[in-house]
Amino acid sequence: MDGDPVEPGLPIIRGMTLIGYDDWYGAGGTRTQLQQALGSGMLRRIRRGVLTDATESTPASDLYLLRVHATAAYLDTGTYFSHVSAAALHGLPLLSKRRGEVTVVRTRGGHGSVHPSLHSRAATLDPSDVCELDGLPTTTLTRTLADLARMLPFDEAVMLLDAGLRAGAEKDALLVRTAAGRGCRLAERAITFADGDAESPGESLSRVRMHQAGLVMPVLQKAILDADGQFVGRSDFFWEHVPAIGEFDGRVKYDELAPTREDLIRVVTTEKDREQSVGDTGCRVLRWGWSDLWNGGMVRRLAPVVGYASSPRATVSVKRRRAGWSF
């Protein structure tokens, strides 16, 4: 294929270009060149009428954001990205199974509709419910969290709410907004339990599993000091009565900190030194990863050490749902 038929200046989202068919043909690209670009993987369809130069290695979360941006040109005035799509724009963690459709709210009358590429709801939005993110009309963080807290399962809702509180949402405002209406009890339970000190989806889900099992709940992000009062580290979870600290080891943590093998060795060595320093303070260190949240390993590891807040609860079966839990 000779040259680059795509003009500069097209929308670029996270380093990836959105290309409309009119852009392609207007820049001199031919149908044959387009088929070659699609066949080679140089381009891919992100939605009807829109192409992108994103590759197969592009994270699913970024591809979903591209779909949201690609949909914007097809929306009427008075339509706002909402629910899952608004959550993605606000940078909240979403399971892959939630990215099946772009979601919007229409405020200019009519009825909602569900299509393969767009789920629209008819609703009234107060001016305080809307904002602009990345140039797109979107429901605010508080409105988005309130909408999703009414409809998502407890564990998913807690992950979103923890991240939303960490991003600046206020728990009292969320409770007021969800005090009545459909899903209000579901929302109240998740909002009350949510804690912005949980710093990752894995930490949020760990808290849910502890709660479901009836374990003594920990303090989050506790500063650990040595005998001289010097700062040693900060724990994901801390049980003062033991004392013990808990650490969730999500693989992404090391992937982000250690992009190369040399970096990984450095990070792991530093982490071992930190754990030794914490152990020297008399705290027991307990670790777990993603798989332990599904096979009961975390609860089995913690229960003999931290104990139960009340009579042990029946373990909630989660293996059946694991397949849908990817980010």
**Strand order, sheet with most strands:** 1-2-4-3
Query: Which geometry do the CA atoms define?
Result: globular
Strand content: 15-25%
Based on CA atoms alone, the radius of gyration comes out at 23 Å
Count of discrete domains: 3
Compute the average pLDDT.
85
Which class do the helix and strand fractions yield?
alpha+beta
If helices are DSSP runs of H or I spanning 4 or more residues, what is the number of helices? 12
Structure overview:
Helix 5 runs antiparallel to helix 6 and helix 6 (154-166) packs across helix 8 (184-193). The chain has 3 domains: 12-58, no CATH class; 61-193, no CATH class; 201-324, Endonuclease, Chain A (3-Layer(aba) Sandwich). With 327 residues, it is of the alpha+beta class. The chain is built from 12 helices and 14 strands. A hairpin with a 2-residue loop joins strand 3 and strand 4 (50-52). 38% of the residues lie in helices and 19% in strands. The protein has helices spanning 21-26, 31-40, 60-72, 83-89, 141-149, 154-166, 171-177, 184-193, 201-213, 251-257, 261-280, 297-306; strands at 12-13, 16-20, 44-47, 50-52, 79-81, 102-106, 113-114, 118-122, 130-133, 136-139, 219-225, 231-239, 244-248, 284-288. The strands form 4 sheets. Strands 1-2-4-3 form a 4-stranded antiparallel beta sheet. A 4-stranded mixed beta sheet has the order 5-6-8-7. Residues 1-9 have low confidence and may be disordered.
